[in-house]
Write a structure and sequence with these properties.
Layout lengths: L1 E6 L11 H10 L3 E5 L5 E5 L5 H16 L5 E5 H9 L4 H6 L4 E6 L5 H10 L5 E5 L2 E5 L9 H7 L6 E5 H11 L1
Helix pairs in contact: 1-2, 3-7
Length: 177
């Protein structure tokens, strides 16, 4: 089975990992058809009948051992990523401004009630919707100036996930196909 692995916080600040290094680590684990996608910690590979929890744990350990980098890893197979794409609650935004729509991948479903509570007290234009284990966030003005991310951090809503914009999600799905 083919998998997409997404590492949290890669190539941000001092957390640097070259695509060639990531590919070498994954190949060194015995996985095949390894291909990195962009330079933000995305890799697609064939891993047979592996389980997602084991892949996340083993990739994390192999990366730390080979590079010293501690990064959370989130994996999805083709069917799971296709389900994410089909469940997108913001399809018009995905077509109009795909780089401003972010999907945050989690291990368990985020707390929609906590997100709604945050949004009730937040005055920005962003919208958020939980679908399964993913959180879709529409950033109409982009992420750079958004005050939502600091508000999420203050409310402790941004832990244990990694985000990808819609363009990247679609590239990962295409690479899995």
């Amino acid at each position: 089975m083919k998998w997409a692995a997404m590492l949290r916080g890669i190539n941000l600040g001092k957390r640097q990992l070259k695509s060639v290094e990531l590919k070498a680590v994954v190949e060194g684990m015995g996985f095949t058809e390894v291909k990195t996608i962009l330079a933000s910690g995305n890799v697609v590979f064939e891993a047979g009948d592996a389980r997602s929890e084991a892949l996340e744990r083993d990739l994390h350990a192999a990366l730390e051992k080979a590079t010293g980098l501690k990064s959370e890893v989130f994996v999805r197979n083709h069917a799971e990523l296709e389900k994410v794409v089909k469940a997108n609650p913001f399809p018009d935004e995905a077509r109009a401004r795909p780089s401003f729509l972010v999907v945050s991948f989690h291990r368990a479903a985020p707390d929609q009630a906590a997100i709604d509570k945050l949004l009730d007290s937040y005055e920005g234009p962003e919208r958020m919707k939980v679908v399964g284990r993913e959180l879709f966030t529409d950033f109409p003005d982009g992420q750079g100036r958004s005050q939502l991310i600091p508000a999420m951090q203050k409310a402790k809503l941004s832990q244990g996930n990694t985000g990808r914009n819609w363009n990247t999600v679609m590239k990962l799905l295409d690479a899995l196909g």
